[in-house]
Amino acid sequence: MAPTIISDSPDAVFIVTGGNRGLGLEHVKQFLEKTKVKVVATARQPAKADQLNGLFKQHQGRLSVIELDTSDEASIEAAAKKVQQLHPEGVDIILNNAGTQEPFTRAVETSGKEYTRVLQTNVVGPFLVTQYFLPLLKKKNTKVVVNTSSICGSISANAAGAFKGLLLPYNSSKAAINMQTAVLANDLKDEGFTIIALHPGWVQTDMGNAAEGPLGGKPPLDPQTSIASQHRVILGLTKSQNGQYLDWEGKQMDY
Fold first, then answer.
1. How far apart are CA 146 and CA 37, in angstroms?
2. Among the four 95, 96, 120, 167, which has the fewest Cβ within 10 Å?
């Protein structure tokens, strides 16, 4: 069996974007509760991130909370500089989790403004996070980037009618994050990077629950189960998985 890449030792530093709610918050909780790593959690408005700040009080010395808005390049650059000050030794993993979802309207009724907003936040934002944090990633041997994707980004699933012609901006953004993952994985493989796209499943978060009416059915996964499974995948990554599109159980997905 190929050796795993990631250590959960006290020297490891994990960054979680959008760590103030939903799956991001659960990522932070479980990394703190089940590993020994240091965590940097980002939020657009840290002062209002009550649950995250509660975790900070419980885990002082292991958790840092910083401002980062993935729709704002200046904010991303400032966050990278802040992490450089906090962890000049470098970071092991970037978990690009922050994202947004538009209202459930028909594809043909999507406004250009809304389309642009979602793509900026969900595609350009994660790319800029990876780009600005690259020097810190290069300081460590781990060099892992995990991009939160979705089955919504599967072209084959959309072609089969899975999402009823809804969520055009969001689905487009997740298809684009899959492409971004594949291209960056090839660009950086010779420098020792492992970059994957990870589908968390349909989860009972605010975003997941919003799909109940428009798409029918209910999200089958609770956040705790999804994140626990994702962490088994992440902590078990090997170099051979660079560029893969996986689900929360580690199964390869169809693009």
1. 16
2. 120
